[in-house]
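Our consortium's second objective concerns turning raw sequence data into structural hypotheses that experimental partners can test. To show how far this objective has progressed, the report includes one record in full. It was chosen at random from the queue rather than selected for favorable results. The single chain below, 290 residues long, was entered without modification.
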Amino acid sequence: MARMTQRRKIHRFVLDGSPQSREFPVRHREDVLAVEEPLEIRLGSLPFTVTMRTPGDDFDLVAGFLVSEGIIWAPEQLVSLRFCAGEDENGVQTFNVVEAQLRPDVVLPDRGRNIFTSSSCGICGTDSIDAVRKSSHFSPAADPLTVPVETLSGLPDKLRAAQAVFDATGGVHAAGLFKIRDDGGTELLCLREDVGRHNAVDKVVGWALRERLLPLAGTVLQVSGRASFELVQKAALAGIPVLAAVSAPSSLAVELAEASGMTLAGFSRGTTLNVYAGQQRITAPAPVPG
């Protein structure tokens, strides 16, 4: 966790009305912050994009980003990943540039994006949904997975229990990939944390690509924030049939989930959840005999 967190001296103001707060309203202490640094992604020697991320699992991030862009979908298409030379003002390697070598037959974008990626998807409307459908090599719609509603509602607590960086900083998002067993139980396959919720999902998808697990049939992706169009897009391109979020989805996220045959749940908070698309996958508990 060393590069993922950083200690900083702060001035903490205490305004609780206690005698101590009146005598010593400012306390000097340290706080732990989530690190945010740029990562430049290169395809071969050509710059492709820069994303702001929390360092750690960077190869997973790059692999997942390439899947999310529709550039690759099989591990054989990714020949190698390596850190390129990059130093800070003190001559220390920053590990902030990753070069991906792709198989020669992989079709590259016409030009590098040369933009900073953010939490907003930057695209909207029917054209974007059609583009996702055309570029997807997996079909979540054909996945026969069913999930007991009590199992789905319990995933946020399982995700939260595994968030070590959030425990230290309170400043990162998380994405957890859960396998749903035949008995309704769950297995946490992969959890990733990052200041960007889209990066956390890319790290999960990239891990799955490198582990040769795509498409991710029979799984649920639980995220700690809201469900944007971008997160649904990433899940669809990885073949994930169910995406659940602790907060709200956007209207376009719901439209894409419906068009992709995915199940999308929001406001999943232990005792309640809303299902916005694909409700046929969610099984309700049997009624209690009167």
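The partners drew two points from this record. The chain is about 25% helix and 30% strand. Residues 197-210 form the longest helix (14 residues). Both points have been shared with the crystallography group to help prioritize constructs.
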